[in-house]
Amino acid sequence: MNIGVVGGGAVGLLTASYLIEMGHKVTLYVRSETQAVHIREFGGSRDRKQFYVDEVRVSTNFKDEDFMMLCVKTIALEEVLSSIIEQAPNTPLLFLCNGMAHIRMMEELTQPVYAGVVEHGVLRTGIGSVVHRGVGRIRFAPVNELDQRFIQQLVGNEMKCFKFEQSEDYRSLLTEKLIVNATVNPLTALFKVKNGQLLNSPHLHQLARMVCEECCGILGVSMDSMWTYVQSVIRQTANNESSMLKDIRHERKTELDAITGYLCAEAAAKGFPSPINTFLYNAIKELELN
Prior knowledge:
Elements: E1 2-6, H1 10-21, E2 25-30, H2 33-42, E3 44-46, E4 49-51, E5 55-58, E6 67-70, H3 74-87, E7 93-95, H4 103-107, E8 113-118, E9 121-124, E10 129-134, E11 137-142, H5 149-155, E12 163-166, H6 170-191, H7 197-200, H8 202-219, H9 223-236, H10 243-249, H11 260-270, H12 275-289
Parallel strand pairs: 1-2, 1-6, 2-5, 3-10, 6-7, 7-8, 11-12
Antiparallel strand pairs: 3-4, 8-11, 9-10
């Protein structure tokens, strides 16, 4: 298939590299011309193994694809999506974005749409290079009931270390990932620790459990099963630094609004107390300002 991968970050580069290995023709859409030129000239690398993308474009210049995966931060999604709608309005889309603030955008689209979550551990080490630090899977579910034939070509041609798994309920998928992100990202950014420290430190372990419990209460999810899942993700990505911690270190805007901000808004709408998430939201906002 002709597959577009939107985003030149860690997830985008990892995904592009495996899709190429599976035999798909990949167009990589990146934010800057500098990155586009580098990858066109030198290719990319995954675990120090070179890969070459069929075509690299800046993410304001889209074309029709058999399928397109959106691996961009929520803060950049609206601008990217408006260009896709204008230039490739019929291309089926798979959203691989953090948080749940993009649900309304997905539900309003007229082409086939999927929502997914990425469970791989991956670190971008350079402008075109990544290290695959934890093998997981990409889980996805349909958002609308439009043509879904192309997805079988993707699932039927997967690799052992890069699997796709189809689910039925996209809201459940996004809810699980949101709780993981809301538990891990703000705490690791605030205390400047790797993910695994949230379980290794008894104090951070208690804080992580408290955050998870409040998130479950806001979203009406079972705490016992969710906490087990959150801990398994933390163990799988123990040596990773969260994206929010990296953003704070590099003085970039975080995805806080799409994660903790979304939860605080949901809690306010339901009249559910959210003192822990409210504290984390304001604490990370202060770090962003400074």
